[in-house]
Design goal:
The structure is a single chain. The protein is α/β, with parallel strands linked by helices. The protein has one domain: NAD(P)-binding Rossmann-like Domain (Rossmann fold). The chain contains eight helices and seven strands; from the N terminus they run βαβαβαβαβααβααβ. Strands 3-2-1-4-5-6-7 form a seven-stranded parallel β-sheet, sandwiched between helices. β1, α1 and β2 form a beta-alpha-beta unit. α1 crosses α8 and α4 packs parallel to α6. The termini are far apart.
Length: about 250
């Protein structure tokens, strides 16, 4: 059996940041568990491309808000690969909506996917890792803008604002079960712009960073790599945002 580490990345079936992370880790020799919910076709295309590139990968479907589906997904991952060394939780939802139109159901839906979904996956992964002598690493995804929120995303920001506390609590809980289980968080900035972003939006995004960069999924993948491998770091929330969090300019859309 291969000794290469097994990493599950939620929300990695589609061409979003989780997919870029999956490719980066796969090319570095990890065995990859792709997760998707509704994007089966995209996930299968990614899976075939990874196989063509010599990457040991498999795809797993689950609604991360559904506890039984999450448990089934992890059972299938263990059945396929025999172990789990890392979890990266990039699955999330967001959509603009004025506060006047934001309903209780909007908030619940964002919490279900962006907070509860992370908890369900991280709890199951962490308890599995706690049973392994080598432990493992969990990386949650928050958002830089929980520190500097923009308008029209209040349900999203509220749900993402819980992720640092969840990360800290998981780090404490799981390390007490096995001190080789670590939990950290990444707060991504403009690391992957929408494919339909206009050139003007692209330039404006760059101007609102200190490092005058954007659209760098390779940089967030590098941060994931660091947090997966560094055995002396846990409970950390790391902005990967080209300085966007501390930039003093006006918020923008």
């Amino acid at each position: 059996m291969s000794k290469a580490k097994v990493i599950l990345i939620t929300g990695s079936g589609r061409n979003r940041v989780g997919n870029a992370i999956a490719w980066s880790l796969g090319r570095a020799g990890r065995r990859i568990a792709l997760h998707y919910h509704m994007s089966q076709n995209e996930a299968q295309e990614t899976l075939q491309a990874m196989h063509n590139a010599g990457i040991d990968a498999a795809a797993f479907q689950a609604d991360v808000t559904n506890e039984s589906q999450v448990d089934q997904m992890f059972s299938e991952v263990i059945s396929r690969f025999g172990r789990l060394d890392g979890l990266v939780t990039t699955a999330s939802i967001w959509s603009p909506k004025p506060i006047e139109a934001t309903t209780a159901e909007d908030l619940r839906r964002n919490f279900d996917v962006n907070t509860l979904g992370v908890f369900l996956c991280a709890r199951r992964a962490g308890l599995l890792m706690a049973q392994q002598p080598e432990g493992g690493a969990i990386i949650t995804f928050g958002d830089w803008a929980i520190q500097r929120p923009m308008t029209d995303y209040i349900a999203y920001y509220t749900s993402k604002g819980a992720i640092p506390t969840l990360t800290h609590a998981l780090a404490v809980e799981l390390a007490r079960r096995n001190p080789r289980v670590r939990v950290n968080c990444i707060h991504p900035g403009p690391v992957l712009l929408p494919s339909d972003a206009s050139p003007a939006k692209h330039e404006r995004t760059i101007e609102h960073t200190l490092l005058k960069q954007a659209n760098r999924p390779d940089c967030v993948a590098h941060a994931v790599e660091f947090l997966l491998e560094n055995e002396f770091v846990t409970g950390v929330c790391l902005p990967v945002d080209a300085g966007r969090t501390i930039y003093g300019g006006d918020s923008f859309k």
